[in-house]
């Protein structure tokens, strides 16, 4: 039995439980008492999209998704995040038995891991890459906090099912979504989809601009480009992100894939989102309710308002779906 350490604690977020508790409470306090006309958490909201940057940047945005997340019947939580540490095709599962947080440890559901791994032909994540990867870890303190609010004791906390998603084709996302469909339909499962949205700037190889609001005709800027005389750059970033968010809300996996192909938007969790959307779209076909199995965006933010071409920013989105 091995434990994955909280490798980003002390840098990306506080490593002292009391200080981390204060930070999370501060972020959660910014969320209104109701969202989309519902008290929180939203009943049946068992899947969320939330960002994974340092809490100083994305903690407040993430609070909206976690406030919506309904864990009341959860016995396991799937966490799907993109790989930032190594390249591979398809999906890979953790080899650890526990994931640590400054608050306490989560138990990995090894039985479910093995079943999903076999059904979707997934690989194992190399332990050193698992430890280095932040896209899953950044969700654990928030998840622990919400579990404390939901369950009487850590012994009652749901287990976690960490899955890192590499480069995937449209077909592979649909195939993996089909494997996860039965878990998605089971009210004992909740899902966290880890993703930041637009990474804008030359250091991300994505510095697009549209002077007239047409995202189908994006120009490329570089560090030495003059400051645009038209709308500020952050308006282009907003337009590109809004198009991606509309695709996410559409419920169509193909629409999401096509949107990213059109704009090149650097949504780092595009493949985890794609897998989730493929599964949700399949589930929606079985339901007669347009309010279910479709993401609703509740919060959007950027790390900075880019005006100059040599600047940069990362965008953050929180969304949920009722299942």
Overview of the structural elements:
The two termini are 34 Å apart. The longest helix is centred in the last third of the chain and has 18 residues, at 233-250. The radius of gyration is 19 Å and the shape is globular. The chain has nine helices and 16 strands. It has one domain (3-200, 267-321): LigB-like (Protocatechuate 4,5-dioxygenase, Chain B, 3-Layer(aba) Sandwich), CATH 3.40.830.10. The protein is of the alpha/beta class and 323 residues long. Strands 4, 5, 6, 9, 10, 11, 12, 15 and 16 form a nine-stranded mixed beta sheet that branches. The protein has a three-stranded mixed beta sheet with strand order 1-7-8. Strands 2-3 form a two-stranded antiparallel sheet. The model has no long low-confidence stretch (mean pLDDT 97). Helix 1 (17-28) packs across helix 2 and helix 8 (253-263) runs antiparallel to helix 9. Belongs to the MEMO1 family. InterPro entries: MEMO1_fam (IPR002737).
The CATH class label is Alpha Beta
Q: What fraction strand?
A: 15-25%
Outline type: globular
Class from helix and strand fractions: alpha/beta
Outline the low-pLDDT stretches: none
Largest sheet: 9 strands, mixed
The CATH superfamily name is LigB-like
- Give the count of helical stretches: 9
Distance linking N and C termini: 34 Å
According to DSSP, the number of beta strands is 16
The amount of helix comes to 25-40%
Rounded average pLDDT: 97
Order of helices and strands: EHEEEHEEEEHEHHEHEEEEHHHEE
* Oligomer state of the chains in this structure: single chain
- CATH topology (level 3) name: Protocatechuate 4,5-dioxygenase, Chain B
Total tally of structural domains: 1
Pfam families: Memo (PF01875)
InterPro entries: MEMO1_fam (IPR002737)
Family: Belongs to the MEMO1 family.
